[in-house]
């Protein structure tokens, strides 16, 4: 129910509308319900977009040795990247040692992606690309794995990492 009133003051007319209190409570409850439903749809949409990806990577060294520890005593052969989410990034620290008697230039390549399409959505970089490593010297290297936020339909992946020290 709505009551309309006109009130005359000196030179103007004020228009007032009064609504029944029950109607106001119903309207407020409806607005709150619609807002809550919108929030739930947004939250559910976000939950559906989250995807967990398991992974691993085999590492091969050519002309250098790769280790898990800074004293270069435990050789590294596989990296388990753990669980990743779309749009996520993770790092892994490893140690590269030139076991030869001449300086080398470090290079990293990746191959054997499985599934092959995942290489379009996952990138791997490191902080030692094209670095010079003296004979007998070691260096701390950080690998950075980034997953595109647009990746979909991937639950597991693997690939090979090849670290090469060239003369």
The gist of it:
The protein is an alpha+beta fold and 167 residues long. It has one helix at residues 21-49, and strands at residues 2-9, 12-19, 54-62, 65-67, 78-79, 89-97, 104-114, 122-126, 132-133, 138-147, 156-166. The longest helix is centred in the first third of the chain and has 29 residues, at 21-49.
Structure, described:
With 167 residues, this protein is an alpha+beta fold. It folds into 2 domains: 2-49; 54-166, Immunoglobulin-like (Sandwich), CATH 2.60.40. Helices cover 17% and strands 47% of the residues. It contains 1 helix and 11 strands; from the N terminus they run ββαβββββββββ. It has one helix at residues 21-49; strands at residues 2-9, 12-19, 54-62, 65-67, 78-79, 89-97, 104-114, 122-126, 132-133, 138-147, 156-166. The protein has a 5-stranded mixed beta sheet, with no helix packed on it.
CATH topology of the largest domain: Immunoglobulin-like
Radius of gyration: 31 Å
CATH class of the largest domain: Mainly Beta
User: Which outline best applies?
Assistant: elongated
Q: Determine the structural class based on helices, strands and strand pairing.
A: alpha+beta
Enumerate the strands of the largest sheet in spatial order, edge to edge or round the barrel. 5-3-11-7-9
Mean pLDDT: 77
Please, how many domains? 2
Give me the oligomer status: single chain
**How many strands?**
11
Taking pLDDT < 50 over at least 5 consecutive residues as the criterion, the unreliable ranges are 1-23, 35-51
Number of helices: 1
């Amino acid at each position: 129910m709505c009551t309309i009133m006109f009130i005359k003051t000196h030179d103007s007319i004020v228009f007032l509308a009064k609504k029944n209190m029950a109607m106001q409570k119903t309207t407020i409850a409806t607005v709150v319900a619609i807002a809550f439903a919108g929030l739930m749809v947004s939250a559910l949409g976000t939950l559906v977009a989250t995807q967990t990806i398991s992974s691993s990577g085999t590492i091969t060294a050519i002309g250098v040795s790769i280790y898990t520890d800074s004293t270069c005593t435990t050789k590294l052969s596989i990296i388990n990247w753990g669980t990743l989410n779309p749009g996520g990034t993770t790092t892994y620290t490893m140690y590269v040692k030139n076991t030869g008697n001449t300086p080398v230039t470090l290079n990293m390549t990746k191959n054997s992606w499985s599934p092959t399409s995942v290489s379009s959505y996952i990138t791997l970089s490191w902080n030692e690309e094209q670095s010079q490593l003296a004979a007998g010297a070691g260096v701390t290297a950080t690998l950075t794995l980034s997953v595109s936020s647009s990746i979909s339909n991937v639950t597991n992946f693997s690939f090979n990492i090849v670290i090469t020290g060239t003369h």
